[in-house]
Amino acid sequence: MDMAGPRTERLVEAVEGARVIDPLAERLAGFWSRTLSSERLRDLLSGRQLGHPLHPAAVLVPAGTLLSATALDLVGGPDARRGARRLVGLGLLAAGPAALAGWSDWLDTQEAERRVGVVHAASNAVGLSAYALSWWQRRQGRSGRLAGLAGAGVLGVGGWLGGHLAYAQGVGVDTTAFQAGPTEWTDAGSAADVTDVPRRVDVGGVPLLVTRLEGRIVVLADRCTHRGGSLSEGKRDGDCVVCPWHGSRFALGTGAVRRGPATRPQPRYEVRARDGRLQVRRREERALRVNPVDVSTPAQA
């Protein structure tokens, strides 16, 4: 068991560094860029309306139904065969929308994340193909259990790689989640220097976007919550700022996401002027931003 961690780590590091995947990734990127060219569709697939990426939630339906079918195969007996076949069919139908959401997220990745994403998608495609074979065999009056078991195993590999994309590589994670801004009023420069043109100001090592909206000063985190682009390098469009990397649009007054692929709002900062100086502080505290993780202290309920 102790060797499992190092072995899987070596495996995923090999995938991350496998430049041989890049030509295929480029072709796939071109295909999906054309297929998902609609901004409205990308906005929907990103999960902006949910406030979180859509793909992790969407995969619950195909994963749940397909694995339930395999469970029925193992313990359900002959009377469960019809139910298992229907579950396989439902899972295959639900896999399409979930895959589209995943490819939409994948388009905004690069290098190591993109390579792992290709192998993740390939594993899922093989697993779904095995389940499709299982469904066809069931339609022919055969059990289809072996194909289903094979599909479950391969989908497990794909799911593990999906977990690596999210939890190790941070794809889909709010890039400001662990960014600790000042919790006390902190000087951010001269208030007279703030104009309608957004600019970056570093306060305590944290980059902030500072601008005016209808005469009042507003301050947001400068790092885009989607993939970390500098919003101050983007363009202002009315009461919004547009990320220069992937085109996410944020309301300057509230930080709300007006257009994806971002799903999380930009953190806002409280602002005040004292003797011509601009002062800012975080609007809220989140434990992981301001407190170190101390394993010696038991968690409080």
UniProtKB/TrEMBL annotation:
InterPro entries: DUF2231_TM, Rieske_2Fe-2S, Rieske_2Fe-2S_sf. Keywords: 2Fe-2S, Iron, Iron-sulfur, Membrane, Metal-binding, Transmembrane, Transmembrane helix. The keyword Transmembrane applies. It comes from the Bacteria. Pfam families: DUF2231, Rieske. The chain crosses the membrane at residues 87-104, 116-134, 146-167. Residues 185-280 form the Rieske domain. One of its GO terms (molecular function) is oxidoreductase activity, acting on paired donors, with incorporation or reduction of molecular oxygen. PANTHER family: 3-PHENYLPROPIONATE_CINNAMIC ACID DIOXYGENASE FERREDOXIN SUBUNIT (PTHR21496:SF23), FERREDOXIN-RELATED (PTHR21496). This is Rieske (2Fe-2S) iron-sulfur domain protein.
